[in-house]
Backbone:
């Protein structure tokens, strides 16, 4: 493959684009590419290669992810004219509940409306019967199809290059040449391995194993125990950076993110009283129906582009722990805009696509700091008491004065960049009030003592 | 209400945006209809009825004028709020996000031009000597 020529490479009338992967990144890239091309009068076609059938339940139709569409992404999609229907959103979320051993606090969306979408990526967990619901991935792929993309239901087995152009071959098929190849497979896909040699500067993202489990609870129990809130846990358990339980219709999804999450750690988490209160695992309670241990990108790919090739979604760069679908949207959009307006050479992607990825990567470094501080809070009971006191105290204050609530909201929802979270966290007024609450948290113990 | 419904539900006649108020948000209708009315001299003039997928209040994102009309639910309507700051931050990052809204505004200007032309024609008929 030619990894960087100086000659201009552009998408011209009749150009063919191959998109490997029909998850959110591939679907949104195709939708935006075809929409923008139509606006400027450019006639291009897009083939989306996706072997999964998103109408199937269980692993066959699932892309293994928490399935949260963040507040900012819900807004961005709405502005783009993509409104998530009630058949896709299993539970609209209006609040977060933070559980700690020292207490529980609830904080609502700043605008007090349902602004976060809990979805299943496929048609539903293993063993369930397909219902009136559709998965997020199937919905977005259908949008791309409606825009004119052709879905090729096959697994890509080989990628080659001839005269600087990419060729794609599916199982039992022949090579199909493209003017631009868009790689939109997840980090868990074996297909990603095909690109190591085919695109020399590219190096896959660094990943970490996570744990996702679906529990069947029944709608009534979900409403009673979880309601319309996402439940986040800051427990003093090792190696867990983030733990959440998300209500989704009759089900609840457990997401554990961290380092070396094994069965023993999962059981220790499920056995914590704060977790059992949300997720009762007795005979009448929640039943595990499906689980997986997918890898999650924790550091972006090196050089996720070349002449006539670009990597979007988490096989390129994604956000640390949060809003992966939002990062797929941003990188897919940036790649589509670049391809139509600027060109498809490595230099074009470097100048116009890479800054978007780099901004996400830089923000992730601050995200690392945020999660380091979160781990500190997990370990220090004194700090946890300070958090609970401060959030409780803020409930009677106006929006701008809810500094801890806003910071936790932005941290857990992924609605704002990590740099905003850090800026809030190091604001003198925040630090002073937090210190005051930590000290106040000492008082009852001192008096008793 | 459907548990998968995003946004906020407004009951029939409930005001979502009031003419003269300061605007910090725009809105996208998720389900149902809203009516846009202009208030003045104790009377109301109906300007439009908007349905699912339509946006309103978008002018507040681009100017600092007060709301130019009142918008209220016509029947039960579900509406998603788009925060001005969040939206403009995204527009600075990717200006094409605003394309759809510009397209809507362009469409409305065309409708207004047609309306002005129609009203001028009617005034012309009422004043045949001019």
Residues:
């Amino acid at each position: 493959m030619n990894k960087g020529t100086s000659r201009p490479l552009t998408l011209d009338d009749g150009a063919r684009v191959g998109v490997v992967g029909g998850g959110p990144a591939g679907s949104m890239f195709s939708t935006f590419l075809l929409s923008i091309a139509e606006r400027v009068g450019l006639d291009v076609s897009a083939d989306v290669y996706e072997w999964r059938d998103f109408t199937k339940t269980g692993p066959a139709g699932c892309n293994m992810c928490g399935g949260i569409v963040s507040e900012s992404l819900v807004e961005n999609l709405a502005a783009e004219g993509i409104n998530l229907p009630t058949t896709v959103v299993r539970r609209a979320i209006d609040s977060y509940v933070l559980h700690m051993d020292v207490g529980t606090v609830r904080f609502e969306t700043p605008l007090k409306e349902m602004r976060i979408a809990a979805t299943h990526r496929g048609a539903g967990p293993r063993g369930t019967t397909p219902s009136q619901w559709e998965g997020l991935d199937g919905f977005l792929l259908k949008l791309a199809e409606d825009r004119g993309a052709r879905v090729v239901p096959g697994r890509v087995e080989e990628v080659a290059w001839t005269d600087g152009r990419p060729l794609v071959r599916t199982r039992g098929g022949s090579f199909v040449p493209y003017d631009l190849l868009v790689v939109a497979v997840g980090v868990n896909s074996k297909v990603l391995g095909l690109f190591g040699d085919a695109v020399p500067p590219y190096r896959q993202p660094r990943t970490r194993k996570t744990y996702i489990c679906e529990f069947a609870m029944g709608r009534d129990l979900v409403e009673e125990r979880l309601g319309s809130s996402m439940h986040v846990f800051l427990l003093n358990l090792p190696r867990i950076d983030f733990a959440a339980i998300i209500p989704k219709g009759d089900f609840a999804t457990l997401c554990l993110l961290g380092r070396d999450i094994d069965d023993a750690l999962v059981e220790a988490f499920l056995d914590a009283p704060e977790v059992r209160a949300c997720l009762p695992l007795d005979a009448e309670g929640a039943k595990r129906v499906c689980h997986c241990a997918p890898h999650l990108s924790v550091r972006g790919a090196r050089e996720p582009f070349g002449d006539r090739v670009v990597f979007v979604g988490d096989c390129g760069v994604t956000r640390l722990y949060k809003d992966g679908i939002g990062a797929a949207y941003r990188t897919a959009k940036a790649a589509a805009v670049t391809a139509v307006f600027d060109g498809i050479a490595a230099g074009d992607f470097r100048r116009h696509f890479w800054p978007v990825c780099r901004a996400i990567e830089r923000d992730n470094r601050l995200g690392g700091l945020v999660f380091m501080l979160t781990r500190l809070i997990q370990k220090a009971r004194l700090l946890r008491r300070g958090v609970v006191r401060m959030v409780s105290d803020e409930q009677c204050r106006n929006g701008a004065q809810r500094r801890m609530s806003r910071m936790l909201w932005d941290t857990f929802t992924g609605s704002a960049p990590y740099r905003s979270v850090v800026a809030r966290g190091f604001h003198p007024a925040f630090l002073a009030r937090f210190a005051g609450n930590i000290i106040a948290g000492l008082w009852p113990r001192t008096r008793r003592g | 209400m459907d548990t998968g419904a995003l946004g906020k539900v407004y009951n029939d006649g409930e005001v979502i945006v009031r003419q003269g108020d300061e605007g910090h948000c725009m809105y996208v209708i998720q389900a149902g209809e809203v009516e846009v009315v202009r208030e003045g001299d104790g009377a109301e003039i109906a300007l439009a009825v908007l349905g699912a997928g339509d946006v309103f209040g978008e002018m507040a994102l681009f100017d600092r004028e007060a709301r130019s009309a009142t918008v209220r639910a016509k029947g039960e309507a579900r509406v998603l709020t788009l925060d001005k700051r969040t939206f403009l931050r995204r527009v600075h990052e990717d200006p094409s996000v605003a394309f759809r809204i510009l397209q809507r505004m362009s469409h409305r200007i065309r409708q207004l031009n047609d309306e002005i032309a129609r009203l001028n024609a009617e005034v012309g008929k009422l004043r045949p000597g001019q």
The helical segments of chain B are 59-62, 84-93, 99-126.
